[in-house]
Amino acid sequence: MRRHLVTKGSFYERLADHGHEIVSDEDFAHLYSQRMGRPSVPPSVMIRAMLCATHDKTSDSETSRRTRVDADWKAAMGVDDEFTGIGATTFSLMRSRMVLSDADNKLFEATLAKAVTAGIFKGKLTAIIDSSPVHGAGAVADTYELIRGFLAKAVRAAGDRLGGDAAGSAAPFCGAKPDIDWQDPQARKAHLGELVAAVRAVVADVAGIADPEVREPADLLAQVIDQDVTDDEDGQPEIRQGVARDRIVSHSDPEMRHGRKSASRRFDGHKMDVISDEDTELILGVDVRAGNASDGEGAAPLLENVQRTDGIEVDTLLGDMAYSDGDVRQAVEELGAEMIAKVPPVSNGGRFPKTDFYIEPDQVTCPAGEETSDAHRIRDHKARPAVQFVFPAAVCGTCPLRAECVAGKAGRTITVGIHEDRIAAARAAQTEPATRALLRKRPKVERKIDHLQDLGMRKARYRGRRKTRLQALLAATVANFKRLAVLGAFENTPGLACAA
Predict the structure, then answer these.
(1) Which residue from 156, 176, 290, 348 has the highest number of Cβ atoms inside 10 Å of its Cβ?
(2) What's the pLDDT band for 59 if we cut at 50, 70, 90?
(3) Model confidence, pTM
């Protein structure tokens, strides 16, 4: 092989020299049949090609071409100059095999194992967590198109098992877009009525079929109708006002969801969670969840996966205010780590916030010095147990601070949740210099997310959340491999580290 042609200090040269330290044929031999099929491209070569494709963000057809003609790629893959390349469709098959056996996670964990072996991690770790939107690969559709798309899928899946009447009612809506005047509200409503009638006929007809291949599209079809359609006063179908919380937005990728990264940033797709080590800036864990899931919900499950890794123990987890909820803090604490995240400020329309009251287990004292132990149990906005303390209206009515405390004629109420002490302690701790210094390190994970986005994680390449997770794990593997070279995890790489 003409190794002198390989770009010096490049990702390809590092993969050529040290790829065998994270990818071996033995680790992925179970993805291949030992008895059937023609001679195959070795798994280590396939996976190295996929890492190159992730690094260069190439399509399967371009990846196939590079494996045939690119000297850098051939060196990285560990093949000779006479290698004839890998067929484009082979990569799709390999991805499916990796997903089914969870081999993508094993590949990513190999980078962490290498860091542990090289002594990169020093003692218990301070980790940082954040999330990022991943725009979905499917097309976002309106209600009419969603219904038609899922109806066509259900009809195709049922095939000859679908009754004649149901098939006949669905046939007009399984082809091209109906030729109606879409600017006419009455025409749209009439079309919706016919469409919903066809859907209900198909759903009722396949109700007794247990085959998952039929049940899945039929259930999704029924879910879309339930989310997007309601009946008017005359019992006629009409588009529902508002958006259902878990609304399906695409028939080509039913797992996509409407999501928000902030009040002004909306996206359609999935949400990627990332945990990185604050010291080494290696990615410790990555996951892909529903686009409409809250940030905090992903903290404990991802941290639990990280804590399972041999040689890695996280005792402090940093996050932004999205991770400051009491439930999140408790879940992280149960995994042996402390959640450090800034607590959102409490406001009360310019009046005294709850933090100005002295709260004890059995009573509450207001800023004016009045006390109350009058309390009753309620449920908070998340249906968790809480206690509400009530100050008598007569006491509040004569209080000189009333205008600064409460509006209306009733007395002030203070709700104390099950995490009140935990949140109060976190609010007090965030004023301490040590905690403030830790919180200033949190933006490091944003740089790591930016690196993953440079490797293609702004948009999903594949449909479905699981294959998007495979994409994220490949990107994290590439990012960690490059970082390991910088950290000197590989032997004889000081020059490469300087170049990186």
Answers:
(1) 290
(2) very high
(3) 0.90
